[in-house]
C-alpha cells in the first residue's frame, strides 16, 4: 500500500508475502515474544528464537507431509549455493540433469566442476518454452537434478519423472504452491524469496539416507549437509529474521487450506490470466500450453502490435500493477502469481488486458 492506493505486486522475486507475515514480523521487529527486545537483537540460541526455528521446521514437515526419513534445513547462500553444494557432497562420477532454463543451466555449469554431466533432455532449442517429455534417466549416475518451475521462462513440470537414482529438485519458485509426492524426492531445495518468505534463507529438505552417499572428497563443515542437520540448522548463526518471516508465511499457507488450498487458488488465478491472454488479439503467451507455469505467466505483444507497449505500460501503471516487466531473455511481460497474490490482483491485470480489446 502506498498513498492509500492498492499496488498489485507481480514481482518475480523477491516477491509478494501475505499481509499476515508482514504484520506479524513487523510487530516482532519492535518487541519480540516476552523479551522486550527486537527479534533482531537477541541470541539465535535464546529459547524464544529456538522455538521459532522449531515451529518453522514443523510447518515445513506438516505442509509437505514429511516423514521422519527427512531433515529440514534452513541454510544461507541462496539456491545458487545449492548448485555447487549438491555436487560437492554427492557427485562421485556422473549426474543427470534436465535442462529447462537459466537456473538449470547454472546448476549444470557448477556441477561440471565435479564430474561428468549427462543432460538427459533440454528445451533450449525452443528458448525453453516447454518442458521436455520422453527422456530416460540412466541408472548408473549418482543423482538426477531438475527444476520444477522455470521462473524466467514461465514453464512448470506437471508430472515428475520416475527415477531409479536419487532425485533432486530446485523448487525455488513453486515450493508450497501445490501438493507434491515428496517420497519421490531425495533432496528438495528452494531459495525462500519467491514463494516461501523473504530473501536470505534457503530451505533444504533432505532424505537422511543421502548422508550415506557422500563423495570421497574433503567437504568443509559449512558445505556438509550433515553438519547442519546435526546442529538443527544452528551450526553457525542462522538467518533469524528470514526464518521468522517464512514461519509466519507458512502459517498463513496452513491457515488458508494448506497446499490443496494454495493449488486451488493458484489454478484459478492462472486460468483467469491465461484465458484473458488467449482471448486477446494483441497478446500471446510465450510458453507452450501444456507446459505453462501457474506461478509465472509470460506473455508478449504479437509482433504486429508491439507499437502499443508504451500505452499498455502506462495503463498498468495507472491501475497500480507493479513488477510486470519480463526477464530480458524472454522480453514482454511476466506476471508472477505466487501464493500470496490475490485473485483481485489478477483481475486488475485482466481488466487492463481486456480494456485493450476495445
Ligand atoms: C531465483 C531462482 C534461483 C536463484 O536463487 P538465489 O536464492 O538468488 O540464489 C534458483 N532457481 C530458481 C528456480 C529460481 O527461481
Secondary structure elements and pairings:
Elements: E1 8-9, H1 19-30, H2 47-64, E2 70-75, H3 78-90, E3 94-99, H4 102-111, E4 116-122, E5 144-147, E6 149-150, E7 155-156, E8 167-170, E9 187-191, E10 202-207, H5 225-230, H6 240-255, H7 258-279, E11 283-285, E12 296-301, H8 309-318, E13 321-322, E14 333-336, H9 343-356
Helix pairs in contact: 1-6, 2-6, 3-4, 6-7, 7-9
How would you explain this protein's 3D organization?
With 358 residues, the chain is an alpha/beta fold. The protein has 2 domains: 21-255, 3-Layer(aba) Sandwich (Aspartate Aminotransferase, domain 2), CATH 3.40.640.10; 258-357, Alpha-Beta Complex (Aspartate Aminotransferase, domain 1). Helices cover 34% and strands 16% of the residues. It contains 9 helices and 14 strands. Helix 2 (47-64) crosses helix 6 (240-255) and helix 3 (78-90) runs parallel beside helix 4 (102-111). The longest helix is centred in the last third of the chain and has 22 residues, at 258-279. The model has no long low-confidence stretch (mean pLDDT 97). Pyridoxal-5'-phosphate (PLP) is lined by residues 13, 78-80, 103, 147, 151, 170, 172-173, 191, 194.
Strand order of the largest sheet: 2-10-9-8-5-3-4
Task: Write down the overall mean pLDDT.
Answer: 97
CATH H level, superfamily name of the largest domain: Type I PLP-dependent aspartate aminotransferase-like (Major domain)
Query: DSSP helix count?
Result: 9
**Uncertain regions: pLDDT < 50 for 5+ in a row?**
none
Write out key terms for the chains shown.
single chain, 358 residues, alpha/beta, Aspartate Aminotransferase, domain 2, Aspartate Aminotransferase, domain 1, seven-stranded mixed beta sheet, 9 helices
